[in-house]
User: Fold this.
Amino acid sequence: MVTGPLNEMLARNSKWAQTYQAPPGLIQMATALRETGAGVVVLSCSDPRLNPYQVLGLDPTLKATMVRNAGGRAFDAIRTLAALQTIGRPGTIAVMHHTDCGMTHFHDDAIKKALIELAPEVKESIEASKFGEITGS
Ligand SMILES: [Zn+2]
Assistant:
């Protein structure tokens, strides 16, 4: 049985699907974007308080692709950004950070310690990882 937030999202999806109309195909859109350079990528933090669509007034006419991760860190998004360069070759990549970001409060050492407590069997992998802490001013 599905409960909690997933149940709520499934109910909202059912309502949304009643009026859904499929957008143009990806290949058609990507071809047009490559030709014009009109594609936009926004890299931002995944913090749910930050809504880049609202903040930047994004709507479907801008063909903006959203890439989000903890802290809006480029090193964590490189694979996706590289793939997007081959698909739509966006002419604009915007990086959007925000105040009171969690990655200014939760630094790599604390994240690693907590993860090792959860999964000590992969301690070496965790210790070798970077989680995108934001330090300094
Ligand atoms: Zn953040």
